[in-house]
Write a structure and sequence with these properties.
Number of domains: 2
Distance between the termini: 77 Å
Pfam family, one: DUF2500
Organism: Paenibacillus polygoni
Keywords: Membrane, Transmembrane, Transmembrane helix
CATH architecture of the largest domain: Beta Barrel
CATH topology of the largest domain: OB fold (Dihydrolipoamide Acetyltransferase, E2P)
Radius of gyration: 26 Å
Shape: elongated
Order of helices and strands: HEEEHEE
Protein name: DUF2500 domain-containing protein
Length: 152
């Protein structure tokens, strides 16, 4: 027993593009594509597939990062706040502006890592602060300031 799957509807290969016949992905679009030029249907399908691909890529990347961070060891290391930066997006016209806050830490061995932090953490820390950074993979968990220096 073979099961046929039609992406564009039952009559796609017969020249009856996007008809309501059969169980196709676009078959519910009905008369929207009836009489449409083939070039239009091709570009519409290509753009739709690109959008779906980008959304799937973003979801897979997010789940992968989340899983990798959960599997990583929770570390507490001596570090110094090296730099602070913000990234503002949106805000044109009547839309809301969003701000992301980042801190770059330098460890005793010279490694540098940037973490996205909450606004409260960003405001409490100053470049040059030294202390213990707690993180799990690329996930920032906290920073406890200390008064002693890292290097002589």
């Amino acid at each position: 027993m073979s099961v046929q799957f039609y992406l564009f509807g039952n009559g796609f290969n017969d020249g009856d593009i996007f008809s309501d016949e059969g169980p196709g992905f676009f078959s519910g679009l009905g008369s929207f594509f009836v009489g449409a030029p083939p070039l239009f249907t091709f570009f519409f399908s290509a753009i739709l597939l690109m959008i779906i691909s980008v959304v799937l890529y973003s979801i897979i990347k997010g789940v992968t990062t989340y899983t990798r961070n959960n599997a990583a060891e929770r570390l507490s290391e001596r570090a110094r706040v090296l730099t602070k930066r913000t990234e503002v997006s949106g805000g044109s016209g009547n839309s809301r502006a969003y701000t992301n806050y980042y801190l770059t830490f330098e460890f005793e061995d010279g490694r540098r890592t940037e973490f996205e932090v909450r606004a409260e953490e960003y405001g409490l820390l100053v470049e040059g602060d030294e202390g213990t950074l707690t993180h799990q993979g690329t996930r920032y968990l906290g920073f406890e300031r200390m008064g002693s220096s890292l290097r002589s």
